[in-house]
């Protein structure tokens, strides 16, 4: 069940009445998470009543101020999830993905308790989730009817080694591919990827964590 996302989301109630609030870094992450949560069967979870909101200060805002931002919601929502890119968070030179998550979760738990909150740091950034051999990736990026397939182009341009499955600089690769295809980068594009790409194909550690957290919180009831 998608959220109505109206102004009354910022009020508190007498007890948790909704499932999940997700604090994200920007509009593209918001579009991605909303599209994923709309696919509960693919994630292996039950249908969830959720609200996804971007932090106005993007990745650094999520890292530094997620606890304060989410505190007013803790009586209304059963669970809180904070998501950010490691690259651009301001912590990429000092902390690993796991340490960013541990640090942020520890501060979130002051209001939510550890059982009700989690953090996911995408390493290095959101685009790492979408690079795969799925034909949907090439189609959404506008990479059709070209002399070289998308993977061959990534290798030729130095974004991908022959034995790798994902580019080391995934956002740069997306941006370059879109420029060549003359297609704008937009939240709608990320929404399409989240709607179409097989979730089983993504074995990125941050996505695996995202899915596992949701499965722990919202298991399918048979």
Kindly describe this structure.
By secondary structure, the protein is an alpha/beta fold. The protein folds into 2 domains: 7-126 and 196-217, Dna Topoisomerase Vi A Subunit, Chain: A, domain 2 (3-Layer(aba) Sandwich), CATH 3.40.1360; 131-193, no CATH class. The protein has 9 helices and 4 strands, in the order E-H-H-E-H-E-H-E-H-H-H-H-H. The protein has a 4-stranded parallel β-sheet, with helices on both faces. Helix 1 runs parallel beside helix 8 (187-196) and helix 3 runs parallel beside helix 4 (97-112). The longest helix is centred in the middle third of the chain and has 16 residues, at 97-112. It is globular and about 60 Å long. Mean pLDDT is 90; it is low at 1-13.
Spell out the blueprint of helices and strands.
Blueprint lengths: L17 E7 L2 H11 L2 H4 L6 E5 L3 H13 L6 E9 L11 H16 L4 E6 L12 H6 L9 H7 L13 H12 L5 H10 L8 H13 L5
Parallel strand pairs: 1-2, 1-3, 3-4
Helix pairs in contact: 1-8, 3-4
């Amino acid at each position: 069940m998608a959220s109505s996302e109206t102004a009354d989301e910022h009020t508190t109630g007498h007890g948790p009445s909704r499932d999940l609030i997700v604090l994200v870094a920007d509009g593209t992450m918001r579009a991605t998470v909303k599209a994923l949560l709309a696919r509960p069967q693919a994630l292996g979870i039950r249908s969830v009543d959720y609200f996804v909101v971007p932090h106005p200060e993007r990745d650094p805002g999520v890292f530094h101020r997620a606890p304060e931002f989410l505190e007013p919601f803790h009586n209304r929502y059963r669970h809180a999830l904070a998501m950010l890119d490691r690259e651009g968070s301001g912590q990429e030179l000092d902390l690993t993905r796991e340490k960013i998550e541990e640090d942020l979760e520890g501060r979130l738990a002051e209001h939510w308790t550890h059982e009700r909150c989690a953090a996911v740091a995408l390493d290095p950034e959101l685009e790492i989730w979408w690079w795969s051999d799925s034909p949907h990736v090439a189609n959404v990026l506008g990479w059709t009817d070209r002399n070289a397939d998308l993977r061959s182009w990534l290798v030729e341009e130095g974004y991908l080694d022959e034995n790798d499955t994902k580019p080391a600089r995934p956002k740069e690769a997306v941006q370059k591919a879109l420029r060549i295809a003359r297609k704008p980068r937009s939240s709608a594009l990320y929404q399409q990827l989240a709607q179409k790409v097989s979730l089983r194909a993504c074995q990125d550690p941050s996505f695996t964590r995202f899915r596992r957290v949701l499965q722990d919180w919202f298991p399918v009831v048979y």
